[in-house]
Write a structure and sequence with these properties.
about 400 residues, mainly alpha, Receptor-associated Protein, 15 helices, elongated
């Protein structure tokens, strides 16, 4: 959900920032993590949501890679951003880059200029840049963020590739079932009308469905169109949320979803800690990465760390660790390299998720094919069963 936050910069400049958050308090917390005072929080109007969706297409990873190359070549930050704006052919992206360059020409810092465009630059990226400005290590921070995003995209790509075959199988099978139930079955219903009660129960139900489709097909098409419109208007997202809640309750899938979110949490925390951000502000910034069910646990862990408890103990008490993660966190606390250790934890669980996705694809694909084959075969058998009975009676 998008919230419009009126903020006060350290230079006593009032600005407005649009932040995606769970609730108003979460939006205010993210704004404070950006180093700004919060004056008011309100729901963003619909136009802001549209602008956010358009700006979401900003190629942040490519921007970081190209900016890093220019900085390594000795070009100043302002000239680098202006160069990227000159070569950009997309008006929306060019306007964002020109806005950043103009802000820096006015004397504002790079992080402050990025914070003025929250729809294109997430709070994590802005915080990483702000921390690097204190140590003059912008190039190193950009390199860490590029590696962070590349690893996330790599894992996401593996999971999407694993899901393509089952989704295509379900879609094609669904179209076949729709064709049988919407076209073939109504044609068969006329043949069996005279047989009446001599039909088996399931065949009679199939016959009634065929007659209903033939009689009320305009209404059925209208309902299908309404369902498609509802899906485009956001019904798919709501359905996905309900499906995610159901999967969380399934022991095998729920645990994998939890590990996936924990891996993303550890990777992001590791990047922020290595960038020089303190652990408590880092935890507050990454709360939006977790599902609503895990966010109260993260808040509880943050409170424990504020009270002086070790990071490993606080995260474990909140149920935000695995057996491997807990051991590695304790090692990181003793060695003093918590940021690097969290990135190693994420890499371990990412590899585990990739192996599990490959195994699940090999299992779910044949299982879905068997299930869809049984469904389509049952429809065909029920259509022809009365013919077989009629042939038996004639014989």
């Amino acid at each position: 959900m998008l919230y419009q936050v009126k903020t006060l910069d350290p230079g006593n400049v009032i600005g407005v920032t649009v932040i995606e958050a769970v609730d108003p308090s979460d939006a205010a917390r993210q704004a404070v993590a950006l180093g700004r005072g919060v004056l008011s929080v309100s729901r963003a109007w619909h136009g802001s949501a549209l602008w956010s969706r358009r700006s979401a297409a900003f190629p942040l990873l490519l921007f970081c890679q190209e900016l890093l190359s220019l900085l390594d070549s000795g070009v100043t930050i302002v000239e680098s951003v202006e160069t990227l704006a000159e070569k950009e052919s997309r008006p929306a992206v060019r306007s964002v880059l020109l806005r950043i360059a103009a802000a820096m020409r006015e004397g504002r810092s790079f992080s402050a200029a990025l914070a003025d465009v929250p729809q294109a630059f997430p709070a994590l990226f802005v915080a990483t840049v702000r921390a690097s400005e204190r140590t003059s290590g912008l190039g190193e921070a950009l390199g860490r963020y590029v590696a962070y995003r590349s690893q996330l995209e790599s894992l996401r790509g593996k999971l999407v590739s694993a899901a393509i075959y089952p989704v295509l199988l379900v879609a094609v099978s669904g179209l076949v079932v729709l064709f049988l139930m919407g076209y073939v079955v109504p044609r068969f219903s006329h043949i069996y009308q005279d047989m009446g009660g001599n039909l088996p129960l399931m065949s009679r139900l199939l016959l009634q469905w065929g007659l209903a489709v033939e009689q009320y097909w305009p209404w059925l098409i209208g309902m299908l169109v309404l369902l498609l419109v509802a899906a485009v208007a956001g019904g798919v997202r709501v359905l996905a949320q309900h499906l995610a809640r159901l999967l969380w309750r399934v022991p095998a899938f729920g645990e994998r979803l939890r590990v996936f979110q924990l891996a993303r949490l550890y990777r992001t925390l590791g990047m922020l800690l290595r960038g020089g951000i303190a652990v408590v502000p880092a935890l507050e910034m990454v709360s939006g990465l977790l599902s609503i069910a895990l966010q109260p646990r993260l808040a509880s862990a943050t409170l424990g760390i504020r009270q002086g408890k070790p990071i490993s103990q606080s995260l474990d008490a909140a149920g935000l660790t695995t057996a491997v993660a807990l051991r590695m966190l304790r090692v990181g606390e003793r060695a003093g390299n918590m940021g690097e250790m969290m990135e190693r934890i994420a890499a371990f669980h990412d590899d585990e998720m990739a192996r599990w996705a490959d195994w699940a694809t090999r299992l779910i694909g044949p299982a879905l094919m068997l299930l869809m084959g049984l469904l389509i075969g049952s429809i065909v058998v029920l259509m022809y069963l009365p013919i077989f009975q009629l042939a038996e009676s004639i014989r």
